[in-house]
């Protein structure tokens, strides 16, 4: 078994004492889904955390990849997300059960609210978010979910939940790379023991040729992707890079054998804040006029079920 849960560098401990592997494998419809890359990550590279979402449309394929990898379910930290069109007490539970069914499991390691937005027809948005959160608290209580959290929540969205909740969100997953580093939000989360998790750590592949990052990579004889992931780990931000290529999945996991200097870290901490991959203003339309989950998902090499 990988040493993910025994080596303190490789996991963070949440406020309910659950160990969350600090490096996970991203999956999504954006850029395609590769069965072989997921199997390889689990079997050959020691990944024990997979991030997905109902919205990405690949939960069924992930179940197949877990089975093919031979890694026992209980070793894998499996995280998925509830899409806002499913918010509401009964509908969230249905969405949770649907995700479990597609993922071939009867419990989830982590269930996140995907965005703070709700369908625009909803009159009392605050109440809908609070009712939805309450459902997650019940799922936690029933031990169907080991960790509950949110994604893309700013301070005021977190306040909405915390006004009424009995369990403070354990995780907030947001965009995080040197060109989009929400320092105030991170500090706010840290003060409340909400673990910050970053998505698009490689800026969706768009920042790998930046000379400043390349320069740091050259000094350490590492790749720009490894430098970006290492920066997350040294800031204790949970990091979920995605790749559909086996050699990059491997490269992205080889980040525990070098250390960025304080000067490297400070440089990466203070870059121009000029790149947003996920534009929050584009989300409402996606909630109100939903395309099918996994719309245009490019499936690469998923074998037919026997
Ligand atoms: N909560 C949310 O709202 C939200 C939003 C966006 C993403 N996410 C999560 O975050 C994960 C990661 O985000 P992301 O996929 O947008 O971006 P990312 O991990 O920052 O970058 C992925 C891109 O970088 C390329 N890449 C990966 N490793 C590489 C390497 N070592 N060298 C060169 N290129 C490399 C990939 O191409 P190849 O596939 O060709 O290697 C892909 O195009 C997603 O999979 C998802 O799980 C969550």
Features:
single chain, 306 residues, TIM Barrel, 8-stranded parallel β-sheet, two-stranded antiparallel ribbon, 15% strand, binds NADP nicotinamide-adenine-dinucleotide phosphate
Compute the CA-based radius of gyration.
18 Å
Oligomer: single chain
End-to-end separation: 27 Å
Give, in order, the helices and strands: EEEEHEHEHEHEHEHEHHEHHHE
Second-tier CATH architecture? Alpha-Beta Barrel
List ligands, each type once: NADP nicotinamide-adenine-dinucleotide phosphate
What is shown here, in short?
This protein is of the alpha/beta class and 306 residues long.
List the helices and strands and how they pair.
Layout: E1 11-13, E2 19-21, E3 25-26, E4 33-34, H1 35-44, E5 49-51, H2 59-69, E6 77-82, H3 89-103, E7 108-113, H4 125-141, E8 145-151, H5 155-164, E9 171-175, H6 183-191, E10 195-199, H7 211-220, H8 224-234, E11 238-239, H9 246-253, H10 262-269, H11 283-288, E12 299-300
Parallel strand pairs: 3-5, 4-12, 5-6, 6-7, 7-8, 8-9, 9-10, 10-11
Antiparallel strand pairs: 1-2
Helix pairs in contact: 1-2, 2-3, 3-4, 7-8
Walkthrough of the structure:
By secondary structure, the chain is α/β, with parallel strands linked by helices. It has a single domain, classed as TIM Barrel (Alpha-Beta Barrel). The protein is 38% helix and 15% strand. It contains eleven helices and twelve strands. The protein has helices at 35-44, 59-69, 89-103, 125-141, 155-164, 183-191, 211-220, 224-234, 246-253, 262-269, 283-288, and strands at residues 11-13, 19-21, 25-26, 33-34, 49-51, 77-82, 108-113, 145-151, 171-175, 195-199, 238-239, 299-300. The strands form three sheets. The protein has an eight-stranded parallel beta sheet with strand order 3-5-6-7-8-9-10-11. It has a two-stranded antiparallel ribbon with strand order 1-2. Helix 1 packs across helix 2. It starts with 10 loop residues before the first strand and ends in a 6-residue tail after the last strand. The model has no long low-confidence stretch (mean pLDDT 96). The site of NADP nicotinamide-adenine-dinucleotide phosphate has 30 residues, from helix 9. Residues 26-28, 30-31, 51, 114, 151-152, 173, 199-205, 208, 223, 225, 240-245, 248, 251-252, 278 line the site of NADP nicotinamide-adenine-dinucleotide phosphate.
């Amino acid at each position: 078994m990988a040493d993910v849960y025994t080596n303190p560098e490789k996991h963070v401990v949440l406020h309910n004492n659950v160990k969350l592997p600090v490096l996970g494998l991203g999956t999504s419809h954006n850029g395609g889904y590769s069965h072989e890359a997921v199997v390889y990550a689990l079997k050959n590279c020691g990944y024990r955390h997979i991030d997905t979402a109902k919205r990405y449309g690949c939960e069924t394929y992930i179940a197949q990849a877990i089975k093919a990898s031979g890694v026992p379910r209980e070793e894998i930290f499996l995280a998925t997300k509830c899409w806002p069109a499913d918010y509401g007490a009964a509908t969230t539970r249905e969405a949770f059960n649907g995700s479990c069914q597609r993922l071939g499991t009867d419990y989830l390691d982590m269930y996140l609210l995907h965005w703070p937005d709700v369908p625009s027809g909803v009159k009392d948005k605050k109440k809908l978010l609070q009712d939805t959160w309450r459902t997650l608290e019940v799922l936690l209580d029933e031990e169907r979910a080991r960790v509950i959290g949110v994604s893309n929540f700013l301070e005021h969205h977190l306040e909405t939940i915390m006004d009424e909740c009995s369990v403070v969100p354990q995780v907030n997953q947001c965009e995080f790379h040197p060109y989009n580093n929400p320092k105030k939000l991170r500090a706010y989360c840290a003060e409340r023991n909400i673990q910050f998790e970053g998505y698009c750590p490689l800026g969706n592949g768009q920042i790998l040729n930046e000379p400043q990052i390349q320069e740091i990579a050259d000094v350490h004889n590492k790749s720009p992707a490894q430098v970006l992931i290492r920066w997350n780990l040294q800031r204790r931000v949970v990091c979920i890079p995605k790749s559909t290529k086996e050699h990059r999945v491997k490269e992205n996991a080889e980040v525990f054998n070098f250390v960025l200097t304080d000067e490297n870290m400070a440089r990466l901490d203070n870059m121009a804040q000029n790149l947003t991959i996920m534009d929050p203003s584009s989300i409402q339309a996606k909630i109100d006029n939903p395309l099918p989950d996994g719309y245009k998902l490019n499936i690469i090499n998923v074998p037919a079920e026997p």
